[in-house]
Amino acid sequence: MMARPVLIDTDTGVDDALALILALRSRELSVKAITTVAGNVEVGKCTRNALAILHLLGVADKPAVSEGAQKPLCRPLFRAPEVHGTDGLGNARRYILASSTPRMCEQSAAKTIVDHCRSFGNKLVIVALGPLTNLALAWKKNPEAMMKVGRIISMGGAFRVPGNTGPVAEFNYYVDPEAAHLLLNSGLRITIVPLDVTEQIVLMRKELEYRAARRAGRVAKAILRFTKSYMKYHEMTEGFNGGYLHDPLAVAVAIQPDLVQTTRVHVDIETLGRYTRGMSLADFKNKLKRGKPTVEVASKVDRERFLRLFHERIWE
Ligand code: BDR
Ligand code: CA
Questions:
Q1: For the stretch 180-215, what's the b/e string if a residue is b when 16 or more beta carbons lie within 10 angstroms of its beta carbon?
Q2: Burial class of residue 60, CB neighbours in 10 A (0-12, 13-18, 19+)
Q3: Residues 6+ apart with CB under 8 A from 54
Q4: I need a surface site. Which of 139, 210, 241, 306 has the fewest CB within 10 A?
Q5: DSSP reduced 3-state for 212
């Protein structure tokens, strides 16, 4: 089996870190590059977190990490340190990576994205785990090259469920609604993995502790540490001691696309709303009413199969 070339764009927070581990431990994928974007925390911290995860896994053939946008296309940055810690990794990065910053690629994230679309064409899958700023910049830079990409899987949006950043918006699309709107209406082949499916996937603290206890290694110890405050946050706000696996599900869709069922529909992102910034809109009843269907939206997930896959790989 040939591994699928993948580029991961990430605002490396806690669930992004789990998603990176899942991707790097899945032989179906060959992670060619990681690009970072401001979102959960400032972009420099996201870059250090991505490097920390590569260091933790000690992967021989390390993908290059390129740093991307410091802020959304036309707004100041809105972050989520209360969810992911001030370092973006549950305030645990210092246990994984000493203060010196290891090498990263000098080239901008947008250029890395364009170059990979050119080199790998329709074989390339881009998994976008944060705000879509880097991808929108790459699209503006070179739409022809971007059109070659096989598929973009974007974790974002909330269609039939409430938002997690205010009542109607999901975090990634709230942070940079202009980038999301531009990209989702670009004609690129996109699959959206929204809160509708990611919030069906909860990893409970008890289960994590049970699994980690059976694996004495460094990776298990680090996972235990960097997920702690993320899970506490969910206990305070949602009433369960555990965490949603938003971004790992997006990576899993790159590994096994049929883990989710999708609906082809036109999607718009609210950029003007006074109370509805970042809201994702799709008219599922009258699919043609809002315009030509443009993207696939995941609406159902095989939860059991995802969790089996996740645990098999993460604790390897
Ligand atoms: C998304 O927001 C971020 O905080 C998570 O990493 C995930 O990508 C969920 O709304
Ligand atoms: Ca993320």
A1: bbbbbbbebbbbbbbbbbbbbbbbebeebeebbeee
A2: exposed
A3: 20, 24, 34, 62, 63, 65
A4: 210
A5: helix
Return the half-sphere exposure (C-beta side, CA atoms, 13 A cut-off) of residue 272: 1
Counting from 1 in the atom list of ligand 1, the atom nearest the Cα of 155 is 8
Which fold does the domain 4-314 belong to in CATH? Inosine-uridine Nucleoside N-ribohydrolase; Chain A (3.90.245)
Tell me the three state secondary structure of residue 256.
coil
Question: Domain-by-domain residue ranges, the chain?
Answer: 4-314
CB of 56 within 8 A of CB of 222? yes
Tokens of 242: 């555990």
- In tens, the pLDDT along 73-124 reads 999 999 999 999 999 999 999 988 866 566 678 899 999 999 999 999 999 9
SS3 category, 165: strand
Give the predicted TM-score (pTM) of the model.
0.97
Residue 298 has which token pair? 């995941």
The answer on pLDDT for 290 being more than 90 is no
Atom of ligand 1 nearest to the CA of 14: 6
With CA atoms as reference, report the closest residue to 156 among 124, 197, 187.
197
Extract the tokens encoding 234.
Answer: 């969910």
| CA 147 to ligand 2 center in whole angstroms | 24
Q: What tens digit of pLDDT does each residue of 27-58 get? A: 999 999 999 999 999 999 999 999 999 999 98
Instruction: Report how far apart, in Å, the C-alpha atoms of 220 and of each of 7, 188, 212, 215, 216 are.
Output: 25, 37, 5, 6, 7
Mutate to test the pocket of ligand 1, among 8, 9, 10, 15 (most ligand atoms within 8 A of CB): 15
User: How far is it, in rounded angstroms, from Cα 236 to Cα 245?
Assistant: 17
How far apart (Å, rounded) are the C-alpha atoms in residues 72 and 171?
13
Q: Residue 214's beta-bridge partner residues?
A: none
Mutate to test the pocket of ligand 1, among 246, 253, 279 (most ligand atoms within 8 A of CB): 246
